[in-house]
């Protein structure tokens, strides 16, 4: 008979992995009981109440009663005395009761534990052979979340224990339950098709999409591919980055990154699938997961299809099919005519997806173009750069809106005359973006010849800049002078309608204006990636007087080179704004990331002496933070900025929500909840519907009772599936579609009056996995820093304190709340100091793998990062999670950090 309480860790792991649900720090339970029971008894067999079914605990509804029986069977030939049955330490307190008779499920209060034994007659307590005794265990949950207890049996000379788990749900959490059990398709990946195929028929471009400058193909060099297959690095990587090898170095890293992206795309390969004829010209293919962008496919992407054959040795030619239309989960494809002619209804095909290479090709082209850049841009040196800026004096209108450091930065920027970039940096909310905007406006007014490009890494960040620039205070900026350049693939409905008048929309889509129109605009705003369109359309070096790059710490160096390398002249002023302590670039290949793609251009510049010395002719550090309430900023300021960040909240939001807080003076709240983390279908992303329900409950209170608006609230969570579940619950139950729910990456640079964080993880075994892979929130200081600095007035964290306390940063936050009387929910773990492992920290500063940066997948047709990192599969991982392959180690490079793998491998390791 199974015992819950004494499963070994291995057995337990098997249970949790099978059902892909976890819910409790199991060891914690074992060690928290002082009672020292036997695992099993030789004299009685005791059944397990509320047994786990496929790893899942029994569900009950808040306010309702669930009952289960416990049978105690004497297996000897003699009478055995039952001395006592006790409920030990219910969590939450008093949620379980015992009775001798089966209680009605709608019963109210049952006897207390002590009274329970009194209800036994002497006869009941004498267990006869062959006459099992049945007692009843009842749970009546008052709150959602996991309810746990231990039932102790003192029988004959034995002490026996049964651990009990009941998961209390409500309507919201039940509505989010999975109907599809989690399963993974582990198929052998076929090598990527890159030669020897029959080309397909491409959708024709309209004339507006034909550019002056062509984008070469920049295929992955065969030697790089072969070396990576042998797990060897091309020599240039071993040399380290220098001015001489700059182009070769970064182009090799881009190829390494692309090989990884190709490999990840192989996860979506489909075998033995059919296609339907659609009219005369198309075949349609059903792609499950397409609606969730797994894989992410857009018009003009292509696939490879070949007839499936029973004989592995048979060589079948692949055909390339271009996507002409995407409809829900169907793609409409056009292949070579021969393929269409030979197609018959029942044909089975093997299909491979190819990701859209346009984005990668733009990066190669941008890196190649750095050949003609001034040395001072790429490797500024103290000797060659002797800048002494004649700072302009700012008009009172602008200076009154800025603090001392911000004013100084703007004046320096106005006085700049090209050369090495000017950098504005500083902790979250210190007004880096505001300073950029306040520099652009006087420039626009004072210099009629100024032509400005402003870039941000995501569409939402670029839209935010547009909104600020055209806001009412800035009447000087005329509407016809400003243009928001969008990726041609960006969906129209992704844009706030009030911004559309600054965009070029034709035939229901974005178009790049003609060169002569582009040249007329005085301020152009785009993402880093879309800045490519300016060059492609023919804008020449020197046309732009200023290039402002916001959130520059979030873009990889090749990303940053897209707006710079084609458009810079000696006179162009470049301004970077960002914070290297916040999230960095999103990179898929650990190798590429480690050797340079994971570091931003801005971060690299800080390693140059010129910027290291913080010469104010080159950089300004902002230290006054206007965003967060001082209590919210205190911890990140101490942890990441040596406590030098001064909090100056600019505008007090109405504190209508204050009665949510146990301590009205302390605007942080930690709500401890023991839920369950689950996965469903073939989606590797995690969700926790108990936490999701709590998030919805708080939002409901804020909006319906406290008068907040949807736009005032933001929800941050590290897993895509959790974001989708929360979003779905908010829309289905309340039609609240304007509450932003997203990853930390989607919130970088943004703020809300109230931020709610759902940490999701509730299974101790998964911590290690996340730690190794830099997933979720744990062990990722940058993600922590950004997540907790988005709230202006109120920060609510919902998570399992027993899991979150394993991380140095989250543990500090948990106890910061608890010690200020602002903790609610399940019982707290014991307070322990978690020492940050410096080697891990060093690593983690560079690892931001879970990101989902809006515009990248839209613009590149690139699979979004959440999926990649939850979904990616690589071979050759053994069960311990250690890499079987040899770690690549070029002679001159230190390669000491932990091997990394993705979550899929880990969970498979358990099977
Ligand atoms: N001098 C100032 N006076 C009043 N409010 C300011 C000032 N500077 C910035 N703010 C306000 O502080 C908040 C944060 O500003 P901003 O978004 O520009 O900061 P940031 O440094 O770019 O943030 P992040 O690091 O998150 O990207 C905004 O609400 C902004 O309006």
From TrEMBL:
<feature type="domain" description="DNA2/NAM7 helicase helicase">
    <location>
        <begin position="402"/>
        <end position="499"/>
    </location>
</feature>
<feature type="domain" description="DNA2/NAM7 helicase-like C-terminal">
    <location>
        <begin position="598"/>
        <end position="801"/>
    </location>
</feature>
<dbReference type="InterPro" id="IPR041677">
    <property type="entry name" value="DNA2/NAM7_AAA_11"/>
</dbReference>
<keyword id="KW-0347">Helicase</keyword>
<dbReference type="Pfam" id="PF13087">
    <property type="entry name" value="AAA_12"/>
</dbReference>
<keyword id="KW-0067">ATP-binding</keyword>
<keyword id="KW-0963">Cytoplasm</keyword>
<dbReference type="InterPro" id="IPR041679">
    <property type="entry name" value="DNA2/NAM7-like_C"/>
</dbReference>
<feature type="domain" description="Helicase MOV-10-like beta-barrel">
    <location>
        <begin position="268"/>
        <end position="353"/>
    </location>
</feature>
<dbReference type="InterPro" id="IPR026122">
    <property type="entry name" value="MOV-10/SDE3_DEXXQ/H-box"/>
</dbReference>
<comment type="similarity">
    <text>Belongs to the DNA2/NAM7 helicase family. SDE3 subfamily.</text>
</comment>
<keyword id="KW-0943">RNA-mediated gene silencing</keyword>
<dbReference type="InterPro" id="IPR047187">
    <property type="entry name" value="SF1_C_Upf1"/>
</dbReference>
<dbReference type="Pfam" id="PF13086">
    <property type="entry name" value="AAA_11"/>
</dbReference>
<keyword id="KW-0547">Nucleotide-binding</keyword>
<keyword id="KW-0378">Hydrolase</keyword>
<protein>
    <recommendedName>
        <fullName>RNA helicase</fullName>
        <ecNumber>3.6.4.13</ecNumber>
    </recommendedName>
</protein>
<dbReference type="InterPro" id="IPR049080">
    <property type="entry name" value="MOV-10-like_beta-barrel"/>
</dbReference>
<dbReference type="Pfam" id="PF21634">
    <property type="entry name" value="MOV-10_beta-barrel"/>
</dbReference>
<dbReference type="GO" id="GO:0004386">
    <property type="term" value="F:helicase activity"/>
</dbReference>
<dbReference type="InterPro" id="IPR027417">
    <property type="entry name" value="P-loop_NTPase"/>
</dbReference>
<feature type="domain" description="DNA2/NAM7 helicase helicase">
    <location>
        <begin position="518"/>
        <end position="590"/>
    </location>
</feature>
């Amino acid at each position: 008979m199974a015992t819950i309480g004494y499963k070994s860790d291995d057995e337990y792991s098997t249970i949790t992995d099978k059902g892909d649900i976890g819910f409790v720090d199991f060891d914690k339970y074992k060690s928290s009981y002082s009672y020292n029971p036997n695992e099993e008894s030789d004299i009685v067999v005791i059944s397990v109440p509320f047994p786990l079914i496929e790893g899942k605990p029994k569900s009950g509804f808040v306010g309702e009663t669930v009952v289960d029986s416990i049978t105690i069977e004497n297996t000897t030939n003699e009478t055995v005395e039952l001395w006592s049955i006790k409920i030990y330490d219910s969590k939450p307190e008093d949620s379980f009761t015992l009775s001798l008779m089966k209680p009605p499920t709608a019963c109210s209060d049952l006897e207390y534990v002590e009274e329970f034994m009194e209800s036994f007659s002497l006869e009941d307590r004498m267990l006869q052979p062959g006459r099992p005794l049945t007692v009843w265990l009842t749970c009546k949950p008052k709150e959602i979340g996991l309810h746990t207890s231990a039932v102790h049996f003192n029988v004959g000379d034995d002490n026996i224990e049964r651990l009990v788990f009941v998961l209390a749900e409500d309507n919201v959490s039940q509505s989010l339950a999975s109907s599809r059990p989690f399963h993974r398709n582990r198929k052998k990946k076929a090598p990527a098709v890159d030669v020897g195929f029959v080309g397909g028929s491409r959708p024709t471009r309209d004339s507006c999409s034909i550019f002056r400058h062509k984008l070469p193909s920049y295929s992955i060099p065969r030697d790089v591919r072969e070396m990576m297959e042998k797990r060897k690095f091309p020599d240039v990587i071993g040399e380290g980055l220098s001015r001489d090898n700059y182009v070769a170095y970064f182009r090799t890293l881009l190829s390494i990154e692309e090989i990884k992206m190709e490999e990840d795309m192989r996860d979506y390969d489909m075998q033995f699938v059919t296609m339907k004829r659609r009219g005369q010209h198309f075949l349609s293919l059903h792609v499950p997961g397409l609606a969730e962008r797994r894989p992410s496919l857009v018009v003009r992407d292509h696939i490879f299809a070949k007839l499936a054959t029973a004989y592995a040795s048979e060589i079948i030619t692949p055909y390339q099919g271009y996507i002409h239309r995407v409809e829900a989960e169907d793609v409409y494809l056009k292949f070579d005519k021969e393929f269409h002619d030979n197609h018959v209804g029942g044909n089975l095909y093997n299909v491979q997806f190819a990701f859209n290479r346009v984005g990668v090709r733009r990066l190669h082209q941008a890196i190649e173009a750095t050949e003609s850049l001034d040395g001072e841009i790429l490797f500024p040196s103290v000797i060659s750069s002797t800048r002494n800026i004649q700072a302009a004096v700012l008009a009172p209108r602008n200076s009154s809106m800025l603090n001392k450091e911000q004013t100084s930065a703007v004046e320096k920027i106005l006085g700049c005359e090209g050369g090495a970039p000017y950098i504005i940096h500083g902790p979250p909310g210190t007004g880096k973006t505001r300073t950029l905007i306040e520099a652009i406006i006087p420039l626009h007014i004072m210099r009629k010849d100024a032509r400005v490009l402003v870039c941000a890494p995501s569409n939402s960040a670029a839209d935010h800049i547009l909104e600020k620039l055209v806001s009412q205070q800035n009447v000087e900026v005329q509407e016809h002078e400003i243009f928001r350049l969008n990726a041609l693939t960006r969906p129209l409905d992704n844009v706030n309608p009030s911004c559309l008048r600054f965009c070029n929309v034709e035939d229901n889509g974005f178009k790049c204006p003609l060169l002569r129109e582009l040249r007329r605009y005085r301020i152009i705003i785009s993402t880093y990636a879309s800045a490519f369109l300016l060059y492609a359309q023919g804008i020449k070096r020197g046309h732009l007087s200023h290039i402002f790059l916001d959130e520059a710490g979030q873009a990889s160096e090749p990303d940053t080179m897209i707006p710079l390398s084609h458009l810079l002249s000696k006179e162009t002023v470049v301004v970077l704004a960002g914070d290297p302590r916040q999230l960095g670039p999103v990179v898929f290949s650990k190798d590429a990331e480690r050797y340079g793609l994971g570091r931003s251009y801005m971060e690299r510049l800080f390693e140059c002496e010129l910027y290291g010395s913080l010469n104010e002719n080159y950089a300004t550090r902002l230290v006054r933070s206007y965003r967060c309430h001082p209590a919210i900023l205190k911890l990140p300021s101490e942890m990441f900025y040596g406590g030098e960040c001064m909090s100056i909240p600019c505008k007090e939001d109405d504190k209508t929500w204050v009665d949510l807080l146990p301590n009205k003076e302390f605007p942080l709240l930690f709500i401890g909840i023991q839920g369950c983390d689950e996965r469903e279908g073939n989606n590797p992303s995690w969700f926790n519907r108990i936490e999701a329900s709590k998030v919805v409950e708080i939002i409901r209170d804020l909006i319906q009772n406290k008068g907040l608006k949807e736009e005032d609230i933001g929800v941050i969570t590290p897993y895509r599936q959790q974001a989708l579940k929360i979003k779905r619950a908010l829309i289905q139950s309340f039609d609240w579609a304007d509450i932003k729910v997203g990853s930390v990456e989607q919130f970088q640079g943004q703020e809300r009056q109230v931020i709610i964080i759902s940490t999701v993880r509730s299974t101790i075994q998964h911590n290690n996995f996340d730690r190794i892979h830099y997933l979720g929130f744990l062990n990722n200081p940058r993600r922590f820093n950004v997540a907790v600095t988005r709230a202006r007035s109120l920060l609510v964290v919902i998570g399992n304190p027993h899991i979150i306390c394993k991380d140095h940063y989250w543990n500090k936050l948990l106890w910061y709340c608890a010690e200020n009387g602002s903790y609610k929910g399940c019982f707290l773990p014991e307070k322990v100091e978690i020492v940050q492992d410096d080697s891990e920290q060093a690593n983690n500063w560079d690892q931001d793998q879970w990101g989902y940066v809006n515009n990248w997948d839209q613009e590149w047709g690139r699979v979004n990062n959440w999926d990649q990192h939850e979904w990616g599969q690589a071979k050759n991982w053994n069960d311990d999670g250690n890499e079987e392959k040899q770690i690549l180690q070029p002679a001159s490079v230190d390669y000491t950090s932990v091997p990394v793998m993705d979550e899929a491998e880990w969970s498979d390791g358990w099977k």
